[in-house]
Each structure stands twice: as C-alpha cells, then as structure tokens.
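Cont'd.
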Amino acid sequence: MEITKGKISIRQAYIILILALTAPSLRVIPNYVSRIAEGCGWISPFIAIIPGILLILLLNSLFKKNKELGLYEVFKKIFGSVLAKLICVAYIVWMLILSAIYVRFFGERFLGTLLYNANMKALLILILIFVGIAATKKIETFARLSEILLLFFIVLFGLVTFAIIPEVKVQNLLPVTYYDAGKILESSLPMIALFSYVTPLMLLGDKITHKEKMLIHGRKTVYIVMFFFFLLIISTVGLFGYSVNQQFIFPYYITLNSIELFGNIERMESLFISTWVASDFTIILMFVFILSHTLGKVFNVRKESLFVVPTIIVIYFLATLMFRNVYDIEMFTRKFGIYANCGLFVLLPLMAFVIGKVRKVI
Amino acid sequence: MIKKLYVTIYIVIVIAFLGWGNKLIPSRHEISKLQLSKVAGFDVTPDDKVDFSLVIDDTNGKPSDSSSENGGSNKKKEELITINADTFVMCFRALQSYREKLVTTGHIKHILIGTEAAERGLIEEIDFASRNYDLRFDTNIYLTKDISSKDFLLTGIEERAAISERIENLSTSWHGVTNEGNFQLVDMLKLLTSEDKSGLVPALQIVDENTNVQDWQISTTEGESEQRIETGGYGIIKNAKLIGFLNRNEMLGYNIAKKNFKGVTLDIFHNNEKLGVNISNSKTKTEFSFSGDNLDSITLTLKLNVDLSEISSGKNIFKKNLAEYENEISNLVRDYISMAIEKSKSSEVDFFEFEQLLKINHPYRYRKLKDGLKEALKQVPIIINVETKLNRTYGMLSIIEE
C-alpha cells in the first residue's frame, strides 16, 4: 500500500484495533461469558460476527462519499456543527473514562500477578509517561510498532492455546440447547461492545487512507477478533468450567498459571503478561491519539500534541480517583461500560446513518 | 529531539529506581538466602485457630531450635515448622520472622488438609490458597485421612525418603489405586464453586502394622516395617465439608468406572490358581433409560483390557476356558463399582456425575427431571455390565508344558 506522510492505511488501523482489543478481552470476555452463558458461551463469538460486520457496513456507508474525512467531519455534515461537537464531547468524556479504566487495570494486573508489593501509582505514572512520549510521535510509527507487537502476541497466544487445547474438557462446554439462545445472545454483547472501538478509531479517519478497502479488511478483522474470542473462551471455560471463571477478575491468568509445556516448561505467565502489557500500552495510546486529535478538532487547534499532556494528567487522576479497587471497575464495566460502549459507538453511528440517508448527505 | 527523548527516558528510569525504590522494583534476594518448601499443611485447632505447617529442607543440618516441631536430631533432611494463629495470613507473616532465610512458598507442590479442618469446611483454606500470590493453581491438594496434616507430616518426615518426593511418587507412579491426573487447587475451586459443592478429593494416610488397609506388608533391611504414608482413597465432600472416605475397594471401583487410573493391579483367585492381572485400559458407557419423563434405570457398560502378569500354576490358561477367568475379573470389578455406587447413594454425593452426564446427553429431559433428580438418583436401579478381555501375556504362554 502507498505510504502517505502523517497517515496510516485502513489495514494498519485495523491492526491497531486488533492489538488494542486483546487486553480488555482477556479480562472481560471469559468472566462475562461464564457469568451469563455458562458453558455454552463459546457460541457467542459466532453470533457477534453478524453485528460486527453490520457495524463495519455502517461505517463504510458513512465514509463512502467522505473518504478523506474523519468521523467528526462526517457527524458535522449529518448533524450540524453544534450537535457534532456535543457528540464528540460525549465521546471525549467516555474515552477519558475508558482510558482511565485501562490504565488502572494495567496497574491492578501487575499488582495481582507479578509485582505484588509495588506502588500502583508509580506503575500508572510510568506507563502514562511512555504513552505521552509515544503520543507526541507520528501515528505511522505507532502503526508499525503495532504490526510487530501483534506478531509477538499471535505467537505467544498461539503457544498458550497449543498447550491448553489438549487439556480442554468438552463437558465444560456442553450442553447447548435452544433454551440457551437468550444467554448466548446476551453474552455476545461484550464482544460487540469491545469491537465497537472501531467507531472512535474512525475519529482519526482523516489520518486513515485506503478507506475503499474498509469493508474487505473490516470483514477480516471481525473474523480474526471473533476467532480470538472463541479461542479465549475455549481456553478458559473449556479448561476449568464456568464456575471457576466466574470467580476471578483475570480468569486468563489462572489458565496461564496452569500451563505446562511438553511436561517440563512451566511458569510461562511472566512471558505472556509482558506481551499483555504491550496490548495495554496499545489501547491506552490509541485512545490518547484519538483524544488529542478529537480535542484539536473540537477546539479548532491544529497542533494536537498540545493536548497530550493535559489528557494524560486527566487520565491519571481519573484512574486513581474514580475507582477504589478492581471490584469497582469490574462492576462499572459490567453494569454500565458495556451498554455505554454499545450506545455511543454502535447506536449513535446507526442514528447518524439513518439521518444521513434521510438528509441525503452520505 | 532525540536528545530530549533520551533525557526523558533517563528521568523516568531515575524516578523509577530512586523515587519509589523497592516499592516499584521487586526486592532482589540471593538464592542462598531463600528457603524453599514443597509441602504445606492446613489444620484447625479446637480453640478455632488455624495451624499452618510447612516442611522445609534442613540443608544446614543444624539442630532445630525450640520453635521446631521435630525435636533436635541433626541427621534429618527435613524440618517441620507449624505456626498457630487466627488466620493463615498471620501464619505466613509469622513464618518469615522465624527463619534467618526468607521462606518462599512459591514452590509448594502439595497442600495437605487435615481431617478435622476438612470436616469443618474447606472454604477458608481454599479461599486463602487461591488468593495467595505465591501458591500456584496447579498445586496438588490432598486430605490426610483420620489425622491432622501436622501429625501426618511429622510422621512423614521421619521416613527415609523426602516427604515431597514420596507424595510425588504416590501421585504419579504408584499404579493401582491412584488417580491419573492430580487433583489440583483449581479442581478444588471447581468443586467448591459448583452448585452443591460436592465431590471427591484424594486422601493420603499413615499406614502402620495395625492398619490393615493394604494387601501387603513391607519389611526393609533397616528394621521392622515402620509407619509409612500411602494413598488413602478419596474424601467425600458435601456442601464443602468432609463427610467420609471411600475405602480402597470403593476407590478401585470408582477409578475403574471413571477411567481414572494408569493401571490397576488385581489379584484373582480361581480354581486354586492365583492370577496377577493388570487392568491397562477401560471404557465406560453410561446409558439412561426413561419411561415417559421418569428416569427408569442407569446402565453402566464397562469394557476392560486386562494384561496377564502372573499365573501361580505356570499353565497356559489360554488353552483353558478363558471366559471363566474373564468372568472372575468382571465380577470382582462389578462388586467394586457396586460398592462405590452404594457409597455415592448413601452419602447423597453424585461423584459418578450422573446428573452432569444426563445434562449433557439428554438436556431436554434433564430440564424436566431437574427438580426431583437428586431423589430419583438415590432410588434408580443402576445396572453394571463388565466385559473383560484378557489380551496380553507379555510374550509368554506357559512355563509348564501341557
């Protein structure tokens, strides 16, 4: 693909999305699916493919005639300047909260797995400093870094899955009956909520080229993400059953904790957690990039990097002050986060699509 | 620009190392300053406190001080430390103040839970073990039959072999009455998070000359057969509490029916001949019969592959009516399984997992039967069919020519 200065291709944007989604999905999917659908949650990713592709179709329609624009400009065309700004402010507020959640979880995960006695605030400041440095650099560098990191993640996740699959007990994933249809549908909700991060990513739309391939690459991304969710459920629920997974904030950590490769190699979790950190870094950095870009648009400031430091400071305070402990974040995600994601990142673009079609601006 | 980046990274690293010091960077310990442990024991005491016991290698060979539970012999390889406190966390804290070395529990491979503690309920022990950063989810769990884990470990460390190695051997290579996979902390969690918090947990026991639980006696060149540790069947857990144990025959029946073994050695007596056989494989099929929406009967059909390891007469039994020998084995196994099923019914713990099988194989019927299923499983006749195939003679037909 042709490389344009200061811009990334749609393929690279999707790669950033895939890598960014790994961190929250390792936390949210096994626990939520076990809670709602119990053993039959492994079917949910197959169901979630449909809304995933519909969301890509929706975004493709919004950008069909606006290939050079970002989502903010598209909203401006559809809703008008004031309403578009209001929507973007809502997006900014929600993305600040999401970033705070991911920053806090980065710290909590370290405290809960490797560095038990570490100072969490120090961990948060450390990652935010690195995110801050990276956010002032070019987005192409971030895209290329994500390509390399995704490769590492695939290799490690593949290795872990390879070690786990022979241990999976089929009875943990059965039975599946038509009585479970409601539960399966409900447990596909967090998958859609996570995949919906593709919408805020399109706020960077004016920095993304080759949007004519949005649908082709988008479909592939949906399949990859949902297949990842499927493997994730198999290797957690299939291994220990849903009742164990319901009890843990980081169910995948128990899986990592129990891996023994070739009967000899164990205690591999540190290796995987270091890659998990890379995924945390990616999702936080992705949001900081989007936030500084959108803030620049809303306040008509060309130099977006001016917003990086204030954004990071706000994220730090939100991360430390909003939640008392990991349980608070878990409850917030379960009771509010998933629905807010769906509302803002799925229903709002849908509304924009309908209004845009009626007004014939897209 | 590059310089600016380097300066920023340098400042970050300086802050990380100096600003937060040990709070951020994990404290480093020399290996020689660490004291490893592989076996731990959990108990409760009558005054509602807990005992935490830890077996550690006494590598210095120093006589133990008064805090040690194991007397002052300087020959022993292992030392038992037991701490009594209100909570296990406090025990862990106290442990670090006792030794000059840092006691690390990250290498604990076996956790033993005393009978009294298990009878009171396993929630506290398992909750602590699951929350503990050091203990791993693949740590093996055992109950100590009719004894506290502390007393069990006291006896165990007097054996010639290290207790952790002995337990390891029992759980992995001692064929016959062991289960194939180890029962790990995560399995215990699964049991305790299940709806009725019921199931089986492997047990270990102390065997001496007065305990007639095995078919053999051991003498060694170093003297009379002393107390030793052996597998002790399974503890039956109901509502997270220990309510009893499966004896050896019941355990054999359970293990064979559930194909939970690497190999089971049996002695068969038939027509004044003794046969030593080894069950190398088994396949169990469970079928449910219904009349309308009621559960009518359950049929277990087992197919056993048996290897012939020893014949007292030295004759070629393959020239005889082989079916007689096969029937003998089938009858013995059927009896063992019947005993285990009776125990399951009398204890009202469905450790054969009939409910789970019904749920998987007949999900729609299961929904209709669910409410009264526990009662139905107590009443329903269970038919056991065992088919034995004597198929391996280790390349030998007979010693006595016929």
